[in-house]
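Marked as duplicate of an earlier ticket. Keeping the data here for the record.
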Amino acid sequence: MLILTIVMTSSGAQAGGAASSTSRAVLERQTQNLVRTYNRGDHRSIARFYAPDASIIELNSLGLFRVVATGRTNIANYYDASTAARWTIDTTDVKITGDQAVQLARLRTSDTKGELTFMFIWQRNAAGTWLIVSDIYKR
């Protein structure tokens, strides 16, 4: 059994002041670029927002995790099979510590699939680019 606990506290989780504000703005732009990529129908290109070994994980109603895609090729295939018409994402919280960040958000679709809550775990690579290493969602 896998138990995952992520604690997001308001005390000190975003060390760095202006640097964290800049990183948060970059993450927000990356997220909106991901949404624009999806909404223009370029689903396969979404994989470039993910680290090469990233995973998409679903949390079901029983609280159990299921890995639905791992690696950029499988992530591209996962999004390519997506049927949601358009996305809107509203970030509810971002916590940044050094080169790692956790983003909590709500995703709404323009079709009957409705809304899901998700968490992106981001990692800044050596080139300074923020990439998603884990995408965990619950419908």
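See parent ticket for discussion. The first strand starts at residue 50 and ends at 59.
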